[in-house]
Amino acid sequence: MKGALSRKIVSKFTIFILLVLQGFVEPASDAANKGVYKVLNTNGVPCVIVQADIYLYLTYQTNDSEKDVVVHVPTSSTVDKTISSCDTSITTSGLSVSAQLLRINLDHMSGWTIDFAFTKDNTFKTESGKEFTLFQVNVTANFASDPKSFPDPKYPVQNYYLHIDPTDLSDIGGSIFADVGNSYYCPSEQKYAINDNDKYGPMAYIKFKLTTIQAYMTSATFGTKSTCPSDQSSTDLVPIIVGSALAGLIVLTLVVYLIYRTFLPEEVLNLVNPESHFDSDSAEGHDNDKHSTLEHF
Ligand SMILES: *[C@@H]1O[C@H](CO)[C@@H](O)[C@H](O)[C@H]1NC(C)=O
Ligand SMILES: *[C@@H]1O[C@H](CO)[C@@H](O)[C@H](O)[C@H]1NC(C)=O
């Protein structure tokens, strides 16, 4: 009867621990939903890897109205090897920025591209040479290629671009960066403005999920993870939660055992360990007991 109850408690506890652990493991469906995009050096080693599930939020204009559309970047999209580069220069807002460039051609969406430009230039508040940042994101949307989804576009092809202001760091630039040699790691959803100012054309936002990004790489695999702020607290909690759960389990087991013991008849206890119930006046003889135990061996 008692045994059944404690087994019930233990199994409930086990389920609880499993649930806690499960919360921190990536669901399989999500893992299948991220694209991996690499820009390779001439020696075949990647200089940029972007691994993420990407969504675009675009303002799409027709002659008489505009709506917001969400485009999921197919994970089967590919890297444009002609445009992408490990060593190029991006001219924008009157600046010439030494950069690494990744262009993704959206799969099954002819004429749709996303450009990601990375730099170590300290104009972008990076510690020159020590950090890299994603300083510009441009999107080209060829609405005309899919009249069913995008009827009557005002402009068949629309460019969305991140306007560079060296005195005012963009959302993306201020968020997606890491030390050279490290990777930017951010599993949670992050949505950033590419453009939220009418002055620079129609609005565009980009959302990243399950993200790992590294530029200026010199080896084929990601460096040490540099976790984004919103995922830091939950990562720090994992060892604490798992630790407390295990500690709880140990205490529970101990308590159950001790309760179980108190219900055992005295003879059984003495049979198992005659020293477990020594009384206070035998304290002196304790040393001798130890000796005699040793002599047995
Ligand atoms: C993004 O578009 C702007 C405006 O057309 C352009 O100046 C800039 O060079 C482009 N940047 C990239 C990385 O393609
Ligand atoms: C939209 O306007 C452009 C020029 O302003 C015109 O050429 C085009 O035919 C118009 N499209 C529709 C669907 O009315």
Counted up, domains total 2
CATH architecture of the largest domain: Beta Barrel
Give the beta-strand count.
Answer: 14
Beta-strand fraction estimate = 25-35%
Treating each run of at least 4 consecutive H or I residues as one helix, how many helices? 6
CATH class (first level) name of the largest domain: Mainly Beta
Provide a descriptive summary of the structure in words:
The protein has two domains: 2-20 and 237-296, no CATH class; 33-227, Porin (Beta Barrel). Helices cover 28% and strands 34% of the residues. Residues 282-286 and 290-296 have low confidence and may be disordered. The relative contact order is 0.14. It has helices spanning 2-22, 28-31, 171-175, 229-262, 266-272, 286-296; strands at 35-40, 46-61, 66-72, 78-79, 85-92, 95-105, 113-119, 131-142, 157-161, 177-179, 183-186, 190-195, 204-214, 225-227. The chain is an alpha+beta fold. The protein contains six helices and 14 strands. One 2-acetamido-2-deoxy-beta-D-glucopyranose binds at residues 90-92, 101, 115, 117, 136, 138, 161.
Could you give a short description of this structure?
It is found in: Membrane. This protein has helices at residues 2-22, 28-31, 171-175, 229-262, 266-272, 286-296; strands at residues 35-40, 46-61, 66-72, 78-79, 85-92, 95-105, 113-119, 131-142, 157-161, 177-179, 183-186, 190-195, 204-214, 225-227. The protein is of the alpha+beta class and 297 residues long.
